[in-house]
Amino acid sequence: MKNLELARIFSEMADILEIRGDNPFKIRAYRRAALNLEGLSKGVETLSRDELLEIPGIGEELAAKIEEYCTTGAVHAHEKLKGEIPPGLLELLAVPGLGPKTAKLLHEKAGVRSLEELERAAASGKLAGLPGVGEKTVENILRGVATVRRGQERHPLGLILPVAAAMVEELRKRARLGRISLAGSIRRWRETVKDIDIVATSSEPGKVMDAFVRLPEVTAVVMHGPTRSSVTIRDGVNVDLRVVPEESYGAALAYLTGSKGHNIRIRDLAVRQGLKVNEYGIFREGDDTRLGGEQEEDVYRLLGLPFVAPELREDLGEVEAALAGRLPQLVEAGDIRGDLHVHSRWSDGAHSIEEVADAARKRGLSYLAITDHSQGLGVARGLTPERLREQRREIEALNRKFSDFTILHGTEMDIRGDGSLDFPDEVLAELDLVVASIHSGFRQPQERITARICAAMRHPYVDIIAHPTGRLLGERDPYPVDLEEVLRVARETGTAIEINAYPMRLDLTDTWARRAKELGVLLAVNTDTHAVGQFDTLAYGIAVARRGWLERDDILNARELPELRAWLAAKRARKPGKGKGR
Ligand code: DGT
Ligand code: CA
Ligand code: ZN
């Protein structure tokens, strides 16, 4: 499917011609051709010369360029044009409000050849005074450059998914939609995403496009086409929407969900079976008979594969596993029975134990562990052994009130800087469950931090290691820790490792979760809730587990309470260094 690639080439040619101040008719012709290629429902590579000429805006000259691209993979005139301007000049066009005319001016009058030079020139006052460039324009340029920079970064899924879901909901209200879904890395639940991809069906694609570019979140319209549009929302995040025919929806959803690597594997597999899979459907090679594509399941079924969950589609062995009938039965949010890392007002949480328990019960959980911070963590109002005993009495009283819910009494015990534990054994012995984690000494060398965590795991009372790398996405790098060694000792000591569901943490990562399973280490998916709304972040932790190929049996808190209690009792009874990890 070469339509979009060609559209990009033609629109880039128009940009370059405009920067050079070329013939406006020629420029408009390229833009028009690009737009029409975007909206085309058939691949240009399948069209004859006569059929190409039927596309609005495509004459002999452009048709020849299309054919040239289909056979050689490049358009000579495009390559030639690109060679005639400084390569950095095109990236200026990504700045909102900065068109080819201004780019030309900036280049000729201020010698600007790249985004970086633009920023420097604007900041140094070099731009003010250029014809038509006032103080306001300079301000806008600087703000625009910052937006582009941010747009080039990846964004934590936890910040983007809620916005994306809200846009989908709003669009549903404002336009007549058939089916609609998020696609791309968001649908695969990658921990960070570059942009938001949406695919939909509608009998009125034009009206959907109009509604889309007018959504309240939109700060700039990058492209407004008949079936595809692209906008920028706050922080420079890009949102792409495609409306496809009903019969292509499943194929388009599969294509746009990706990943690119997964798509390539699927396409190769199809070719070997005499089939063709693209964003329009699944076809028989040769006579192009349509075999399916309305449902995403069609893609996999027609290749003889079981459905592959979006979270697995990273070309990390899922195609081989599907072929061999060995895909994992992935854990689901509904499998989780309880949460083993929860804070209350007793330390740094916002709600009482009762409020927290009510919220958990309303979400269908049957138990939770209150794990407030330990005494050493003054900033988080950590509990002394005396306060911990008081807390136990409150929990016992609450448990007497419930018939269908149980509160376990735990702690999130600090592993101190010197590797010692924050509570003595006799205090830990009174608790149902001990979560241990690091809150200080992040700058210690890797051996030291690894040794602290491993020493804690060798302690018979420690059940779970929480947020094992301490990272905060986009804010704080992980502390140096040898996770392979941590997992090895977790296996040896039968300690569970946490997948922290808080979307800015999400440590363990998906790849390490998968490694943990490989090594036979049990995982716990916990929300680390500090306010009751945070229970809803469980989905992010489950996504990490699923991306790590985990099944229900790999998750400690997917067990019913009696099995969990049995596991906890067995953990305490273990002789150090003996036995199986799970
Ligand atoms: P991101 O946006 O970097 O977080 O990750 P994705 O996977 O959402 O990537 P994106 O937005 O560039 O593209 C969305 C999907 O479109 C991608 O997952 C697969 C499909 N796609 C994009 N480019 C290609 C391509 O060149 N070949 C194939 N086969 N698929 C592609
Ligand atoms: Ca994307
Ligand atoms: Zn915590």
- CATH architecture of the largest domain, please? Alpha-Beta Barrel
* Overall pLDDT confidence: 93
Strand percent estimate: 5-15%
List each distinct ligand once: 2'-deoxyguanosine-5'-triphosphate, calcium ion, zinc ion
Q: What count of structural domains?
A: 5
State the end-to-end CA separation.
49 Å
In CATH, the homologous superfamily of the largest domain goes by the name Metal-dependent hydrolases
How large is the count of helical segments? 24
Q: What would the CATH topology of the largest domain be?
A: TIM Barrel
Oligomer, anyone?
single chain
Helix content: 40-55%
Largest sheet: 7 strands, parallel
CA radius of gyration: 29 Å
Overall 3D form: globular
Beta-strand segment tally: 17
- Reading off the top of the CATH hierarchy, the class of the largest domain is best stated as Alpha Beta
As laid out across the biggest beta sheet, the strand order is: 11-12-13-14-15-16-17
The computed structural class is alpha/beta
Uncertain runs are 577-581
